[in-house]
Amino acid sequence: SVTKRLDEYRPYPFELETVRLDFRLDPKQTEVRARMAFSPKLPAATLHLDGEELDLVSISLDGRRLLRDEYKTSATGLTIFAASLPEQPFTLETVVRIAPETNTALEGLYMSNGMYCTQCEAEGFRKITYYPDRPDVMAKFHVTITGDAPVLLSNGDLVAQENGYAEWIDPWPKPAYLFALVAGDLIAHSGTFTTMSGREVALNIWVRKGDEDRCEFALEALKRSMQWDEEVYGREYDLDIFNIVAVDDFNMGAMENKGLNIFNSKWVLASPETATDADYERIEGIIAHEYFHNWTGNRITCRDWFQLCLKEGLTVYRDQCFTRDTRLGPVKRIDDVIMLRARQFREDRGPLAHPPRPDHYKEINNFYTATVYEKGAEIVGMLRTLVGETGYRQALDLYFERHDGQACTIEDWLKVFEDSSGRDLSQFKRWYTDAGTPVLRVSEHYKDGVFTLRFEQETKPTPGQPQKRPRHIPITVGLLCPDGDERAPSRVLEMTEAKQEFTFEDLPQRPVASILRGFSAPVSLERNIAPGELAFLLAEDTDPFNRWEAGRQLAQEALVAMAQGKAAQPDYAVALGKLITDESAEPAFRALCLRLPSEDGIAQSLHDRGLTPDPDAIHAAREALATDLARNHEAALAEIYDAMAVPGPYSPDPGPAGQRALRLAAAGLLNRIDGGQRAQALFESATNMTESLGALSLLVQAGADEDALAAFRERWKGDRLVMDKWFMTQLAACPPEIAVERAEELTEDPLFTWKTPNRFRALMAGLSGNHAGFHGKDGAGYRFYADWLIRLDPVNPQVAARMSTAFETWKRYDAERQAIVRNALERISATQGLSRDLSEMTARLLA
Ligand code: HT7
Ligand code: ZN
Description:
This protein is 41% helix and 22% strand. The protein is α+β, with helices and mostly antiparallel strands. The protein has an 8-stranded mixed β-sheet with strand order 6-5-9-3-2-12-15-14, with no helix packed on it. The chain has a 5-stranded mixed β-sheet with strand order 17-18-19-21-20, covered by helices on one side. The model has no long low-confidence stretch (mean pLDDT 97). Zinc ion is lined by residues 289, 293, 312, 315. (3S)-3-amino-4-(1H-indol-3-yl)butanoic acid (HT7) is lined by residues 119, 121-122, 251-252, 254-256, 289-290, 293, 312, 368. Keywords: Aminopeptidase, Hydrolase, Metal-binding, Metalloprotease, Protease, Zinc.
């Protein structure tokens, strides 16, 4: 299949001002009539419209039926020869038929529980009708829907409605990927929002009957997001109605279609009995994310899909800031960095590494990655650090003013920062074009009152980029006196060379440096630092991120030593003891400090040090450290467990959620020595899903789960979202030696409806999240996983391809394991009729 390249971009040779779409819905045979008003921009151009899996019924131009020799159709589209096209504006009308009922790929128009639903990003619209399906073609849509359903929705404002018929006009030009249509027997949970200019917007969350009492949290989150975007970015909503629909069968989290966001029901529906604290926080974040796209993505969109991080990086950054403002800022920053390291750093070190703005791809759906999203967000954060708070707001104001209604590039984005700040960002641009995580080495020197930090940066080669150039890195640094007082407040050092040093003068004593505060750049910091100094930072740093980071580093050092059969230094256990009893620290923060690095993270650390990780040894080391901590701090942990019980009715607010997190973290350690006693009691008394699932997970971990799993299943077997948790938790948390066998058994469960993406993901991600289980020496985990990818691929290639990233770390491990994975990947790749999605992924994984 064809590789698409950034440097081959050509503007579309026609202007498309308006499009009228008439849908006659039918599960087997939906008819789509499209009328498109084109104006030629270049003389004698042929007109190419994208189209896949369409049954063409008719085609006419300005009312005249086109003859067979005036156009041609292929598997990828429809071409009308230049000789048949007038030089003036013209209207092209096509009629096609499609079959939503048989669409299992969930791209284009498909059905979920009897309801019609669309997903068009990135290139799904071409499965609905022939059209220039590219983001730089922006048109005004007028849509009519005729169908046997009480609720008929599309983008924009509703202009007419009667039984079985609805008409929608979207006044804002948009690319086809933002088109949406939903039809079904839905019920709305509604509210209103009054915008800053006093317009009232109707808000609706549409769900299946029975789910309407789980929408209030999402509705309130939407109102908070609308308010925040007005206050922080001056952005007002621009239609009279905003609809959100919850769908059970969905390839990703949610989709920002103009005025009609479509959500995976997992990220909308919440009640205390069925959703955890983490679910609540994530729902709020995703509601905000999709809403924020209205300006960063919809009003200003991408010129082509290579620019994806223009809208995704910026929108993730905006949703992260929203959560930081509405919840506990430092805790959110730490959570985001944990996630960045677990997903993006891992991607950057393996065969799938790519720049935030890739310059080639075969299947764009394979590039909705942590690098595009999360690293894209880090880059926006670095820009803000470089130009400052006011400079950032000025740049964003200019971006909205200059580019509203346009399809833009990363160059346009950087130019607004250059123009508004007067800075040269040509070197900074490498963050977008170059792959890989820079390693930043630092050494410290103190003499005659002068403290010097010497930095060296190095980025390892990544696929297709053997040579790396130095990056422009903002390094936020603060200096502490040995008594813990701030000696020099935070200052941003701008590193632009491969090696560079910075000095701090007039220091009567050698300070303790707090480097890369707030994680000011997505780099791997390597610093030769004594455990005592880390313990000091864990106790005293005024920057909460670096305080947590010091503890994490101590834990990581201990685990890396133990995984090699060496004894761990006692520093971590001692330092942690002080922190967990420090009542001035937020419970949520203390909970994070008690969370041990993941087994995958330890494997990465070993690999970074040139060692081959042994998954069993890593698992044993992590268990041993957890047991040590529990023994050393048994009394303090037990006290925390009792003190952090949250009385009264459930609230997902950060305060009580933080208390529950700390309580569960304490229970998690104590679980290693109390025989699962607390977990059992908590499981029986739990009044909300956070406690219930937390306790279940601990029982699974302790191998004392048989009754609890059965009881949980019995209680929740009718609830699809809770059952996903049941599948996932018991695989992620179980002892590694039983993980694959259990996964095999679970695929036989009648509730394992594997064609539903959420259920498939729950089981497979549960297994691959069990590090030592998935990477078991006999290779059973690898074979099982590969078998299921092969099975899913013809049904849903997007999800199969996305799940194949479980193999991205395979080259870290020993030769025997590598041989089994290679074999599994080659087997996938040799499968007859493999999708473009999965074959691109396996080729990259094997390269
Ligand atoms: N912009 C969306 C990305 C997306 C997607 C969503 C649902 C199903 C398939 C999809 N393909 C791409 C989601 C977002 O980033 O907001
Ligand atoms: Zn997004």
